[in-house]
Amino acid sequence: TPSPTPSPTPSPTPSSPHQVPLPPPSPSPSPYPSPFPSLPPSPFPSPSPQPVIYPTPFPPPSTPPPERQPRSVWIGVVLSCSFLFVFLIFLAFSQKVFNISPISKGSRIRWKREEQRERDW
Predict the structure, then answer these.
(1) DSSP type of residue 101
(2) What is the pTM of this model?
(3) Distance (Å, rounded) from C-alpha 36 to C-alpha 48?
(4) How many CB atoms lie within 10 A of CB 36?
(5) 3-state SS assignment for residue 6
(6) Cα separation of 108 and 69, whole Å?
(7) Phi/psi at 7 (nearest 5 deg)?
(8) Which stretches of the chain score pLDDT less than 70?
(9) What is d(CA 108, CA 34) in angstroms, rounded to the nearest whole number?
(10) What residues form the membrane-spanning segments (predicted)?
C-alpha cells in the first residue's frame, strides 16, 4: 500500500500547490450548479456566469500602452512648440539688444555714405 500512495503523491508533490487548488474547484462546481437553478429567476445568474470580470483586467493593461503613446506624442509636440516659441522670443530679444534688425534700404545708403566720407578723409 505505501508504494501505490507514493506514486500518486509524487505527481501532486511537485505540483502540490497546483494540485491542491484543483481539488477545491472540482467540488465547488457541484455546488455551483445547484445555485444556478435557483439563480435563474434572480438577476444573479448573469453575474455568476460572467467570466467577463476576468477579461476586464486584461483590456485595461492593453489600453494604457495606447494611451501612453499618444501622451508621448503630445508631450513631444508641446515640447517642440515651446522650444520654437522660446527660440523666437530669444531672437526678438537679441534683435532689440544688439539692434540686429533687417537693414532697410535707407539705412544701407546712409551706412555707405558714412564709409565714403571716412574714405574721403
Answers:
(1) -
(2) 0.26
(3) 8
(4) 13
(5) coil
(6) 52
(7) -60, -45
(8) 1-69, 97-111, 120-121
(9) 99
(10) 73-93
